Amino acid sequence: MTSDILDKISFDSHGLVPAIAQQHDTGEVLMMAWMNADAVLETLETGQVCYWSRSRQSLWRKGETSGHVQQLVDFRIDCDGDTLLLLVEQTGVACHTGRHNCFFTSIRDGKAEIISDVEISPEAMYGQKTPGP
Amino acid sequence: MTSDILDKISFDSHGLVPAIAQQHDTGEVLMMAWMNADAVLETLETGQVCYWSRSRQSLWRKGETSGHVQQLVDFRIDCDGDTLLLLVEQTGVACHTGRHNCFFTSIRDGKAEIISDVEISPEAMYGQKTPGP
């Protein structure tokens, strides 16, 4: 099954594919991150979402530090295979800022506006260290 | 306002940023495409979503050929500025295959499964020519 599924995904020149995480029952778009082939396989095999961190250049098991894991509910591939949509059950919050999702800046009347509040302080999630995405 | 907003977006080395389109009222994730600075500005100015086509290397006014336009409802930027979320009102269908959204392939029990039907034939949308994304 492994190679069949990887064959359906068009990884970019860096071996990566963007993956959108969406809360399966509310439809909330939580975040977008990247996967390489290993992250795809681990996610499908374990049912726990694992990305590839471009900044750390390593597998990023979402929630490993914070406990805010994403349980895979459905794994979808788009029409030309170059984007993934992951339906997930999000524990806690998805964003490293402590907000429920990462898309909390809206452009309204030509200005950037913060439209959602921090639910859990980054310090409470990570201790003194606040890792980026 | 223009430069302020562009300053909040981290375009990649090709001058592009991924943009997720979501139907504003149902939460359906419709598609993911790319924008350059001109596409961002045109979208904000006109309220009609305009992407950058990487295959055609030109602005891609969504729905220009098919009539299946996306009216912008809200424009959001993620926590690190490298992904956009566009809440839209989709006319017709978003996918060039004639399906309502592009994420119609699901991996279930280790196999790829088509989970939604074609609503409008590509021939009806585009005539004899079927442009890719």
TrEMBL record, chains A, B:
Keyword Amino-acid biosynthesis in annotation: yes
Entry EC number(s): 3.5.4.19
Biological processes per GO annotation: L-histidine biosynthetic process
Main location: cytoplasm
SUPFAM superfamilies reported in the protein's UniProt record: HisI-like
Phosphoribosyl-AMP cyclohydrolase domain sequence ranges: 31-104
Sequence positions that bind Mg(2+): 78, 80, 82
Gene Ontology terms: cellular component: cytoplasm
Cofactor(s) annotated in UniProt: Zn(2+); Mg(2+)
Keyword vocabulary terms for this entry: Amino-acid biosynthesis, Cytoplasm, Histidine biosynthesis, Hydrolase, Magnesium, Metal-binding, Zinc
Catalytic activity: 1-(5-phospho-beta-D-ribosyl)-5'-AMP + H2O = 1-(5-phospho-beta-D-ribosyl)-5-[(5-phospho-beta-D-ribosylamino)methylideneamino]imidazole-4-carboxamide; 1-(5-phospho-beta-D-ribosyl)-ATP + H2O = 1-(5-phospho-beta-D-ribosyl)-5'-AMP + diphosphate + H(+)
Localization terms from the record: Cytoplasm
GO molecular function: magnesium ion binding; phosphoribosyl-AMP cyclohydrolase activity; phosphoribosyl-ATP diphosphatase activity; zinc ion binding
InterPro entries for this protein: PRA-CH, PRib_AMP_CycHydrolase_dom, PRib_AMP_CycHydrolase_sf
Its biological purpose: Catalyzes the hydrolysis of the adenine ring of phosphoribosyl-AMP.
Annotated family: In the C-terminal section; belongs to the PRA-PH family. In the N-terminal section; belongs to the PRA-CH family.
Record protein name field: Phosphoribosyl-AMP cyclohydrolase
Species of the source: Sneathiella chungangensis
Lineage, uppermost ranks: Bacteria, Pseudomonadati, Pseudomonadota, Alphaproteobacteria, Sneathiellales
